[in-house]
């Protein structure tokens, strides 16, 4: 158990080092940072002095260590485009993205789980077939197109919902929330559905498949034989046992929700980290790109680590062989 | 139906359609072909109306876009035929529509139907090229990892694990962003299409590599490989000529589903404005252009390219699903 956790931790550190290397390589070799900082008429000597002052003439390993050291302290340098510390920009934008992801996750769970249960219990009903068709379309529709269609129908044609921005937000300390105002909540509906639709179909299919499997097991047959009501069997016994994988997948999907928020935020001009990243790519704002990359990677690695460790704690079978869980392809 | 398994691997993001393919299987190309011609697969093909419709739609769309110069009413790239006076013509059945432009025109007076046909051609070309690129990269590295083993295997699969913990679209965006920084501006414009193919290809190779590595590790312990080794054949020759044909079966299924993913990724990148330039409009670029006119009521400029994209992706997805089920009865 302890060996597994240590191995898994080391693996996570390794991933972060690789990501940091990529981030650093972006910083150091893509474009010339000096050119991005000074004006046209800066003399060659001034440039060289600045280069020396910033430590850009140091050997690459030294620069890399400095980059990591700064990054650990949350210092990613200045944005080329905004001229402000990248960390400040990210902190400012983080609440918008996190709230949107949270709303999308809640939507996906609240709609996906009941739909999955229904399609598993009443497989032949027309509603179940409709749900499955919707899920197929949900997987085939690209996120940005869902967003555009929702805007077209609910914002342009019906005029019920706003089509961009966060509405009014309330500032609580450094956190700005849209959950407390009517316009803030209203503005969240369409982006949350757009972002959550794919996860919803995923959860629905997962719940359905797990449920179908559990319903075939002996203990369910036995529960039926004991004369328990259908309700007690389906929800008390079957559903409970399907939820473990659902929770795992939902956890693992958290990271990709935040990553896919890039697209949703661009469609709805939602002022979050994803939009910041998109603009950074467009204007080749390397520090922002590198910082976003490292941040998202840290998030992914952390989620995966927690899920893997939880798994081993929950399922003792996985403890045999120590590192079996860590292996990607049957190692 | 596919079911993303709750496997405790190193944070493999659950890919709905293709995750089941990671399991090693022994379906050779020849084996698959023989069985495809056998009645089983054709039987399941005939018996599934959904698949028939999907195949029909896919063939129709792909055929029409390949033959775009012959089928399309006008050439959307020919500047001399553009008529700015005809801009924003609604579809022919709406009020003010003209039968010359069945689906209406865009902001520059381009016939939308022609633009969609040409756009789909570009989308498909980029998608197919990305799939081929990802396939070459993935199959090559997977074969190398599986056959060589040892530290080569560890290195390649570690990189694959790291990459798998990030969504493909993020990788593609990053590759594109880096290319933007490395290439001079005017050069980037010309290179955009290659950059996109590279970005999507790099973001998609892992699936191939994992599958091929798994089957290669099974294949390399079989008697025919032993025999080849005893005969003194070069390891590279054994891997390429003897093992490779026996591990390609699942790869073709992955490629079908990957085509749908690649087309979506390209459309997303183009929509986000980091894909193909407006001079070479793919479906995603057309949707991006139309998005600007959504609020002024010209909905058709966005909706029809979007519809074409959905039909294309949906039909290819359905075909891929069917192909996987038909070639691998275990998954049914």
TrEMBL record, chain A:
The keyword Lyase does not apply. It is a multi-pass membrane protein. It comes from the Bacteria. One of its GO terms (biological process) is transmembrane transport. PROSITE patterns: ABC_TM1. SUPFAM superfamilies: MetI-like. Pfam families: BPD_transp_1, BPD_transp_1_N. The chain crosses the membrane at residues 12-30, 100-122, 134-160, 172-198, 243-270, 290-314. Keywords: Cell membrane, Membrane, Transmembrane, Transmembrane helix, Transport. InterPro entries: BPD_transp_1_N (IPR045621), MetI-like (IPR000515), MetI-like_sf (IPR035906). GO terms for cellular component: plasma membrane. Residues 94-311 form the ABC transmembrane type-1 domain. The keyword Ubl conjugation does not apply. It is found in: Cell membrane. PANTHER family: ABC TRANSPORTER PERMEASE PROTEIN, DIPEPTIDE TRANSPORT SYSTEM PERMEASE PROTEIN DPPB-RELATED. Belongs to the binding-protein-dependent transport system permease family. This is Peptide/nickel transport system permease protein.
From TrEMBL, chain B:
Gene3D superfamilies: MetI-like. Signal peptide: none annotated. It is found in: Cell membrane. One of its GO terms (cellular component) is plasma membrane. Residues 120-320 form the ABC transmembrane type-1 domain. Belongs to the binding-protein-dependent transport system permease family. This is Peptide/nickel transport system permease protein. It comes from Roseospira visakhapatnamensis.
């Amino acid at each position: 158990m302890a060996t597994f956790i240590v191995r898994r931790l080391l693996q996570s550190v390794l991933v972060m080092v690789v990501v940091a290397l990529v981030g650093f390589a972006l910083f150091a070799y893509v474009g010339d940072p000096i050119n991005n900082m000074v004006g046209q008429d800066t003399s060659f000597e001034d440039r060289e002095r600045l280069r020396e002052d910033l430590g850009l003439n140091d050997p690459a390993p030294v620069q890399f260590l400095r980059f990591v050291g700064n990054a650990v302290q949350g210092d990613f340098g200045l944005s080329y485009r905004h001229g402000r510390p990248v960390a400040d920009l990210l902190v400012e934008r983080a609440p918008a993205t996190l709230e949107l992801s949270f709303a999308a996750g809640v939507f996906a769970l609240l709609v996906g789980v009941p739909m999955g249960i229904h399609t598993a219990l009443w497989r032949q009903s027309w509603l179940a077939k409709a749900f499955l068709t919707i899920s197929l379309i949900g997987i085939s529709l690209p996120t940005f197109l869902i967003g555009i269609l929702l805007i077209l129908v609910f914002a342009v044609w019906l005029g019920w919902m706003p089509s961009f921005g966060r509405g009014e937000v309330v500032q609580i300390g450094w956190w700005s929330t849209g959950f407390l105002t009517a316009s803030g909540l209203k503005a969240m509906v369409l982006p949350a559905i757009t972002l959550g639709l794919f996860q919803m179909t995923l959860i629905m299919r997962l719940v359905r498949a797990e449920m179908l499997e559990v319903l075939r097991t002996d203990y369910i047959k036995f529960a039926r034989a004991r004369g328990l009501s259908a309700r007690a069997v389906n929800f008390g016994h079957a559903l409970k046992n399907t939820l473990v994988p659902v929770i795992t997948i939902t956890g693992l999907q958290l990271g990709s929700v935040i990553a896919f928020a890039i697209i949703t935020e661009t469609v709805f001009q939602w002022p979050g980290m994803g939009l910041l990243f998109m603009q950074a790519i467009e204007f080749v704002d390397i520090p922002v790109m590198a910082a976003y990359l490292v941040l998202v990677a840290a998030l992914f690695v952390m989620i995966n680590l927690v899920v893997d460790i939880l798994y081993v704690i929950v399922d003792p079978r996985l403890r045999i062989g120590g590192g079996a869980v860590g292996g990607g392809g049957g190692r | 139906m596919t079911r993303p398994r709750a496997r405790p691997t190193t944070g493999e993001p659950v890919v709905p359609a293709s995750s089941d393919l990671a399991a090693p299987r022994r379906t050779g190309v020849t084996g698959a072909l023989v069985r495809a011609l056998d009645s089983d697969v054709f039987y399941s093909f005939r018996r599934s109306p959904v698949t028939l419709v999907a195949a029909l739609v896919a063939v129709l769309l792909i055929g029409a876009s390949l033959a775009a110069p012959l089928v399309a009413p006008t050439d959307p790239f020919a500047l001399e035929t553009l008529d700015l006076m005809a801009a924003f013509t609604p579809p022919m059945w709406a009020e003010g529509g003209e039968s010359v432009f069945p689906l209406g025109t865009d902001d520059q007076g381009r016939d939308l139907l022609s633009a969609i046909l040409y756009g789909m051609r570009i989308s498909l070309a980029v998608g197919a090229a990305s799939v081929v690129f990802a396939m070459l990269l993935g199959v090559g590295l997977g074969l190398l990892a599986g056959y060589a083993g040892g530290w080569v295997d560890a290195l390649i699969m570690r990189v694959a694990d790291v990459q798998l913990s990030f969504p493909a679209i993020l990788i593609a965006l990053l590759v594109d962003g880096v290319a933007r920084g490395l290439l001079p501006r005017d050069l980037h414009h010309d290179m955009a299409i290659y950059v996109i193919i590279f970005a999507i290809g790099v973001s998609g190779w892992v699936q191939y590599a994992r599958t091929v590595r798994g089957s290669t590790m099974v294949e390399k312990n079989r008697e025919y490989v032993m025999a080849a080794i005893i005969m003194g054949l070069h390891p590279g020759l054994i891997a390429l000529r003897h093992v490779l044909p026996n591990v390609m079966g699942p790869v073709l299924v992955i490629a079908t589903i990957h085509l749908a993913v690649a087309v979506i990724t390209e459309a997303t990148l183009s929509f986000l404005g980091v894909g193909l330039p407006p001079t070479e409009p793919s479906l995603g670029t057309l949707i991006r252009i139309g998005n600007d006119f959504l609020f002024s009521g010209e909905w058709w400029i966005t909706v029809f390219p979007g519809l074409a994209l959905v039909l294309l992706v949906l039909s290819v997805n359905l075909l891929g699903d069917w192909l996987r089920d038909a070639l691998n009865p275990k998954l049914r």
